[in-house]
Amino acid sequence: MGNHHSKKNIMIATQENEGNQIFFQHTMPNNVCFGCGHENHEGLKIKSHWEGDASVCVWESQEKYNGWKGIMNGGIIATIIDCHTMATATMHAYKVEGNRPWNSDPEYRYATGTLTVKYLKPTPNDVPVKLVARVTEVKGRKTVMTCELWSNDQKTAEADVVAIRVYDSSQQNGDNPFKG
Ligand SMILES: CCCCCCCCCCCCCC(=O)SCCNC(=O)CCNC(=O)[C@H](O)C(C)(C)COP(=O)(O)OP(=O)(O)OC[C@H]1O[C@@H](n2cnc3c(N)ncnc32)[C@H](O)[C@@H]1OP(=O)(O)O
């Protein structure tokens, strides 16, 4: 993990590191997103990190995110997949440009273009889930990914996701709703 990050990025992340783990979202100040923003105190606060070429997120739900009793709500599942894959697309772009740090130029932002979730099995809501995302293609402004959701040793959902680069500070002209 440490090898994928520059010294500068590691220093930024240090304040919020847990153990030796560096999470993508901890390098992104001012993120107010419901799923991944650590500035959103009502949010899900997911945390993602690299494990080789895959990005991984382990997340613990709460009873209020039930669908059926004891089963995780499908919209919450879509939300954590959405946020985990957008963070993955973002960090992947910086990674392929020489592992440059988040606060280097140009700045990129990604938004969800398409998110297709296949719900395979009920996902228990009282054990942590694990998301595993992989970038399968980068074409122009598009990053295509797959994402699996695991509960213990069972895959309970899988998704195909297309992220679109919606902000590039080197191309920016005028207002951009995705900048802030
Ligand atoms: C301040 C610090 C903050 C830190 C933040 C940290 C991270 C926070 C993370 C928060 C995470 C929160 C996550 C959220 O909740 S993001 C919120 C949910 N998503 C949105 O609101 C997006 C709304 N949609 C749009 O704005 C536009 O439609 C976009 C920008 C997506 C495309 O419109 P644009 O006019 O730009 O596109 P283009 O026509 O030039 O096409 C370009 C290419 O893209 C392909 N394409 C187009 N549309 C789609 C589509 N829907 N699916 C698949 N592919 C699509 C198209 O074929 C073409 O490819 P090719 O033909 O060239 O191959």
Please describe what this structure looks like.
The protein is α+β, with helices and mostly antiparallel strands and 180 residues long. It has a domain of 118 residues: Hotdog Thioesterase (Thiol Ester Dehydrase, Chain A, Roll), CATH 3.10.129.10. The protein is built from 2 helices and 6 strands. Strands 1-2-4-5-6-3 form a 6-stranded antiparallel β-sheet, covered by helices on one side. Strand 4 and strand 5 form a beta hairpin. The longest helix has 23 residues. The radius of gyration is 16 Å and the shape is globular. The chain binds tetradecanoyl-COA. Tetradecanoyl-COA binds next to helix 2, strand 3 and strand 6.
Characteristic key phrases:
transit peptide, 180 residues, 17% helix, THEM4/THEM5_acyl-CoA_thioest, Thiol Ester Dehydrase, Chain A, binds tetradecanoyl-COA, alpha+beta, six-stranded antiparallel β-sheet, 2 helices
Give the SSE layout.
Elements: H1 7-13, E1 48-51, E2 54-59, H2 74-96, E3 108-119, E4 129-139, E5 142-151, E6 154-168
Antiparallel strand pairs: 1-2, 2-4, 3-6, 4-5, 5-6
Tetradecanoyl-COA binds next to helix 2, strand 3 and strand 6.
What are the bound molecules? Answer: tetradecanoyl-COA
Mean pLDDT score, rounded?
89
The CATH class designation of the domain at 51-168 is Alpha Beta
Number of strands: 6
Count the helices. How many? Answer: 2
Strand order of the largest sheet: 1-2-4-5-6-3
Please write the string of helix (H) and strand (E) elements. Answer: HEEHEEEE
Residue runs with pLDDT of under 50 for 5 or more positions: 1-17
CATH architecture of the domain at 51-168: Roll
Residue share in β-strands: 25-35%
Note the gap between the termini: 28 Å
Structural class: alpha+beta
- CATH H-level superfamily of the domain at 51-168: Hotdog Thioesterase
Radius of gyration: 16 Å
Overall morphology: globular
Main sheet attributes: strand count, strand direction, barrel closure: 6 strands, antiparallel
Helix content percent band: 10-25%
As for the CATH topology of the domain at 51-168, it is Thiol Ester Dehydrase, Chain A
